[in-house]
Write a structure and sequence with these properties.
This protein is mostly beta strands and 390 residues long. Helices cover 0% and strands 45% of the residues. Strands 14-23-22-17-18-19 form a six-stranded mixed beta sheet, with no helix packed on it. The protein is elongated, with a radius of gyration of 26 Å. The protein starts with a strand and ends with a strand. About 2% of the residues have low confidence.
């Protein structure tokens, strides 16, 4: 199914209700402590537990992470409030994350408060999210599961490109990893089903009978390493905020935990900036009889402006709107109006063009000439709707 981003040369401001999701996603969801000798897995002093705040607001026209400034954090461990700068640090720019830099003596509760301001009304709202970090003692006669990201747990795709994140699973016994006779099973959370879904041998999700899913079916969403110990997960497996689940099983018949299983869950964030399509009018919106003015397609994601090559494999197009805002079925211009070689195709009351490695999205290739004859005859204003398909 084509993915589409759209924009108009003219638009109205609409103030409406909003809904929100505020979550805290850690690098490590728990810590395992062994007492003899004392050791921690993972060791937060060498592998900091980075906690990322993510605020998604629906209804404001901006689906990117709304954390734009400093948060107020607190970390309570065993009834004691830990110290900023000693036990943890807080970023004052970028993603405004918290980093736990010391090992935890007991389970901790991390709380984050962020004051958000509505971009239109100016109303401020305090959002609060809490995240428990369990610390479990491993005496050696029990097993635990652990998921470690190879690089990051945040998807940030550009120009519709694919992105894969790598994770490694482990079965922990005592203070070290046990790799003898261990099986690893991975699952992904589907918000529409409300449960974790399994993967088949091809890395495609298995949807329970009678259920529908918001995740793409028939598409490879996961790739596995040897013995399924590692997983590469596709950005298409996450809708804003998601998670993967690892189940490890001890299959060593000589082990005291033979046949036992342990589970770990890892949160994922899709922090991709939304695609913004602007129909620019370099010489203004006024067109005189017999004349014309250029209209250019410009695409950006956050602070990133698409390069000429980013348009490869994409299609840009536009159509005329009636005074009522509907697609105008009487708009049938000649393809020669937009280039002597019919670079832009006209079909279904739309004007469109596709881009290839030999025809990239240069500024000239993204610009059309809007002529006086393209405007609605009995109206002063004419609005064109642009679209991006890929």
């Amino acid at each position: 199914m084509a993915i589409q981003a759209s924009g108009r040369a003219t638009f109205n401001k609409v103030i409406d209700g909003v809904s929100s999701t505020f979550s805290l996603v850690p690098t490590y969801g728990n810590q395992i402590m062994s007492k003899d000798p004392v050791s921690y897995t993972p060791n937060f002093e060498t592998n900091n537990n980075i906690i990322t705040p993510t605020l998604k607001i629906l209804g404001i026209g901006d689906t990117s992470n709304q954390i734009k400034g400093a948060c107020t954090w607190s970390v309570v461990c065993g009834g004691k409030t830990l110290t900023n700068g000693t036990d943890y640090t807080v970023e004052t720019s970028g993603s405004y994350r918290l980093k736990i830099i010391k090992n935890l003596p007991s389970s901790a509760l991390v709380t984050c408060v962020y004051k958000w301001t509505h971009p239109t009304t100016g109303q401020t709202i305090d959002f609060t999210a809490s995240l428990p970090i369990p610390v479990a003692e491993n005496a050696g006669t029990m097993i635990m599961a652990l998921i470690t990201p190879k690089s990051t747990d945040r998807f940030q795709t550009k120009a519709g490109g694919d992105q894969w994140l790598d994770f490694e699973g482990a079965m922990i016994r005592g203070g070290s990893e046990d790799t003898t006779n261990v099986t690893y099973k991975w699952q992904v959370f589907d918000p529409s089903v409300g449960n974790f879904l399994e993967f088949d041998s091809k890395g495609q999700i298995v949807v329970p009978s009678g259920k529908t899913t918001a995740l793409p079916t028939g598409t490879v969403l996961a790739k596995f390493g040897e013995n399924n110990k590692t997983i590469s997960i596709s950005d298409k497996a996450v809708i804003n905020v998601g998670s993967i689940k690892l189940t490890v099983r001890d299959t060593d018949s000589q082990s005291s935990t033979s046949g036992k299983e342990a589970v770990a869950v890892k949160g994922l964030i899709d922090d991709t900036d939304p695609i913004d399509l602007e129909l620019s009018q370099p010489k203004g919106p006024n067109v005189v009889a017999g004349g014309g003015n250029p209209m250019r397609f410009d695409i950006s994601q956050g602070n990133y402006e698409w390069t000429d090559k980013d348009y490869i494999g994409k299609k840009l197009g536009f159509y005329r709107l009636t005074a009522a805002g509907a697609k105008d079925s009487t708009f049938v211009p000649s393809a020669s109006d937009f280039g002597s070689n019919n670079e832009w195709a006209v079909a279904n009351n739309e004007v469109s063009r596709s881009y290839t490695t030999s025809v990239t999205g240069t500024e000239a290739n993204r610009t059309v000439q809007i002529k006086y004859s393209h405007l609605i005859a009995n109206a002063v204003q004419t609005t064109f709707q642009g679209f991006l398909d890929y």
